[in-house]
Design a protein that fits this description.
Number of strands: 4
Order of helices and strands: HHHEHEEHE
Structural class: alpha+beta
CATH topology of the domain at 122-202: TolA/TonB C-terminal domain
Radius of gyration: 76 Å
Number of helices: 5
Helix content: 10-25%
Strand order of the largest sheet: 1-4-2-3
Largest sheet: 4 strands, mixed
Shape: elongated
Strand content: 5-15%
């Protein structure tokens, strides 16, 4: 037996047909007895509704305000004690002033030395009177020879007012003797002074 033949068999559909018939019978019974009307009336009754208010939570306990701060009372005013200091009085001695009517003595006259014009240096200018330097003994003992270049400042009257050592080799060995000798030189008088340059050579002789 295949599936088509098995479906055509009326015995397989009997339970389904019986369930449908029973459903129709129940519906018809409800219509006849008025059961459906009662259900509708029950549905028509008013439905009571209640509004449930939300329960409010009690406010939290607020702490009491702090007590006010009381400012400390100011210290009592105590006036400082009065101190009387006696200042000693200083009496100044009377000043004695003397008035002199005599005029001051006149100032001494200013003596001006003759000025030496800074002209060109005269090299090896002939002197009217010469004093030759002496070889120092210490240099003789040590066998030292040397050379000195000196400037002499000559006044208009022909005298030497200053001797300047320009160069000496070796240093300070013959300077003193050169200054001693050249400061005694004499020159012919001239309207103005001058500067003379001289080279003094110290050589040991055998």
């Amino acid at each position: 037996m295949n599936y088509a033949e098995r479906e055509r068999n009326p015995a397989r559909h009997l339970p389904s047909i019986a369930a449908v018939v029973m459903l129709h019978l129940v519906i018809g019974y409800a219509l006849v007895t008025g059961l459906a009307r009662r259900v509708v009336e029950v549905m028509k009754q008013p439905i009571e509704t209640k509004i449930i208010e939300e329960i409010k939570k009690p406010p939290p306990d607020t702490p009491p305000p702090p007590p006010p701060k009381l400012a400390a009372p100011p210290p009592p005013f105590i006036p400082p004690p009065e101190i009387n200091i006696q200042v000693p009085t200083v009496t100044q001695a009377p000043t004695i002033t003397t008035v002199t009517h005599t005029p001051p003595p006149p100032a001494p006259p200013v003596v001006r030395q003759p000025e030496v014009q800074q002209t060109a240096v005269r090299r090896e200018y002939r002197a009217a009177y010469r004093v030759e330097p002496v070889f120092p003994r210490q240099a003789q003992r040590e066998g030292i020879s040397g050379r000195v270049i000196a400037h002499v400042v000559v006044q208009p009257n022909g005298t030497v007012s200053e001797v300047r050592i320009i160069q000496s080799q070796p240093p300070r060995v013959f300077d003193r003797e050169v200054i001693r000798a050249l400061s005694q030189w004499k020159f012919n008088p001239e309207p103005v002074g001058f500067i003379g340059e001289y080279e003094i050579v110290f050589n040991l002789k055998d």
